[in-house]
Amino acid sequence: xxxxxxxxxxxxxxxxxxxxxxxxxxxxxxxxxxxxxxxxxxxxxxx
Length: 47
Fold this sequence. Notes:
The structure is a single chain. By secondary structure, the protein is an all-alpha fold. Helix content is 74%, strand content 0%. The protein has one helix and no strands. The protein has one helix spanning 12-46. It is elongated. The two termini are 23 Å apart. The relative contact order is 0.10.
């Protein structure tokens, strides 16, 4: 699976872009880890 986020920040967001990028990556990893747990739990219950 490939996830891509695109965008070009303007104004203050362009200054904060590196921090925002890191925060988005952390949040995405956390969300995907939680999704994995839920999917594995679901598949273990139906197998």
